[in-house]
């Protein structure tokens, strides 16, 4: 028994020393390795006589252990052990484990050698450096502002399609306007706050001056809008964009479609898109000037514009007496309106109300100036024209001529050829300077010379003439039907195709309808400039004799102008009589076949030419009807 207690005492002492020395050993090791260890908790020894914490644990079942030895002899030590060991076995409620609680006396511990005990020092706690005091400047006030016009974006998006719907704008143009606003985040282009900005005011001012260019200011009126009404502001901005697009297109010739007037009027209009117009106006320093620039800048147009302003400044205030309607008057007829007609034409009074020859001749002159058929017959159209002041009629004529200027390209070309059909003249222009001028022969009224622009590309010497389909149908086919030698006797070569088609060609020669030279600019009308064997026709005052092409009085002088110094007229003439020869121009030359019945010079003098095809009357009537 004593040996057992001694062993227990030594074991307990060894365990205590190990627990006391383990932290110190660990601290030394960590110090050597440079690793800080956390502070060790203090060792707390609970005394036996301390009050145990009361836990609400169900009482374990009591178990009585019978420690009595089995039958047989027992030693004295065994008997002593049996007498000393008593207790009870307690079990957990779930019976998973059991603890044996023994009533053992506290062992007697020997004194501990102080040299073996090393005091446990608490590990020093790292001291966190306190941040330095930083004085921060006060933050500025942040002002959040909306982009200009963003407050109208929702209303613009909702009204864009409706507000852009002008009658004379196509669906494509309206869609382009809507798309332009969408690209601008549906912000206004022209409204600034509650009123028009600078660009908007410039555009409105130019629209108000539309009449100066022969346009109708009433076509571009901006509706009145209320500055306090955001819906009204949004609609006004969109409508102003649509009006600006319409004005730009009208200024470039979009008021009427010339191809609907005649199949022989085929200019290529340069109508700007809505996207182009709005882009140029929105980024312009002077939006009004940009909008005005869509009108022609050509000198001839500017002279007409100046004359229009002059006529309107001196317009008579009193209207001309109206001539009553009635039957058409011809020479020899009696009518009570004859005195009024003579007074209107500036003729003296007559004793009898007879429509005589002098009255008819004066009326024919008036009809010519008015663009009417100059037959001297008092028709309903003539009565209507007589009811208008002369200045008003001239205004309409000038406006119609200004409209035809809009059909020309904005860039006519620095060097160019211009053929004025009603004037029977051809000019070679270098800028605004006249380089060469020649009389020409144009098409007859039944085979009119077309109106268009193109580029001359080459010249043909000793050309063959292929009879156009119109002449072939009207002249040659009936002649060949009656006489198989009809073409051969006239010097023409007939070629029959495998499909039964017939072509008639006139070989080069002195009698060739094209003469010795022709100037080519491929076009849909198959017309061009050329020489002619009938040069005596150039002496006539009115020279509408051709089948549509333009005959030039001195074609070799024209060749000098277009071919350059390498091909002089003398060199070209040495080629006459040889085979067909094609010579390209050094560079393509713009050529314009125009129809100017009214020309105003720098001094403001007006010159009128016969409306030989009625094209002028078609344009003027179309504008008046649209108005």
Automatic annotation (TrEMBL):
Which pathway does the UniProt entry assign to this protein?
Cell wall biogenesis; peptidoglycan biosynthesis
| Key words, A-Z | Cell shape, Cell wall biogenesis/degradation, Peptidoglycan synthesis, Signal, Transferase
User: What name appears for this protein in its UniProt entry?
Assistant: L,D-transpeptidase family protein
CDD domains per record = YkuD_like
Asked if Transcription regulation is a keyword of the record, the answer is no
- Record-annotated active site: 530, 549
Q: Where is the signal peptide?
A: 1-26
The record's comment on protein family reads: Belongs to the YkuD family.
Q: Which Gene3D superfamilies match?
A: L,D-transpeptidase catalytic domain-like (2.40.440.10), PGBD-like superfamily/PGBD (1.10.101.10)
Q: Which residues form the L,D-TPase catalytic domain?
A: 415-585
Please provide an example of a Pfam family that matches this protein in its UniProt record: PG_binding_1
